[in-house]
Amino acid sequence: MTIDYHIPVLLSESVSGLAIRPDGVYVDLTYGGGGHSREILRHLRDGKLIAFDQDPAMKDRLISDDRFEFIQHNFRFFANFLRYIGHDQVDGILADLGVSSEHLDNPERGFSFRYDANLDMRMSPGLKPSAADILQQSDEQELKRIFREYGEVDQAHRIARKIVETRDHTPILTTFSLAAILRPLFPGNRENKMLAQVFQALRIAVNHEIESLHDMLEQTAAVLKPGGRLVVISYHSLEDRLVKNYIKGGNDAGTIETDLKGNTMIPYRAINRKVIVPDEEENERNSRARSARLRIAERTEFQAHV
Fold it and tell me: What is the CATH number assigned to the segment(s) 128-206?
């Protein structure tokens, strides 16, 4: 077992939210540094934990435990993989949607404007296009949509226009070159925050994060046993809104549907009516926890199908 280099966010609250049975089967959809997986295993006796991560770099940090199985793949296909290994239903699912330290702190991955690197941002090397490709190939309207929708950037139109004007004579291929182009557009006291929003938007677009989250959430109700728990930690409003709506109504919009007899068809019961956030002590200990939002839901008896 390797040493965990990643500080898990809301560790106690999220694992507690799974209401783990010692003999149960649980899924960690976002293995990352393995922090949540290790804590889940501490609560299992003869149960099983199945972890997913699309990044091949995580295979060097896997837990050595007979109760643990790792699947290197995007979680948007997790239900099919679970069926393939003989688990049609499980007792709990956990997903920490944050970016791991491997991505943010490894300069070569191109996720952060703190380091000069190629604009890559792919969580899996097989993904296409890279961040540089998106900046070079997308038209101005598409760039504006990416920055506004995924980064909630106020000046999305100015950023998109500046990128298009610049790339006409100079390709934008590195993190430092992108930051240098955009800094003059931002007020000094908001420069880092707005750059972070731009880089977040590109990362989400490169890795198809919202589409993957949508696909993953749609599968959870059919995979969880009645009484099983869904635990999700999100880090920006677009993610949190999707999670909240799925817990509320089992769909993107959060609308509550009824059958022909007027019975509500709701696959989940929210465990925490108010979103759980890190306390000040955790925020001081781990600055990346500040934007975390935890939601926990329990599977109802309503029958869902993938």
Answer: 1.10.150.170
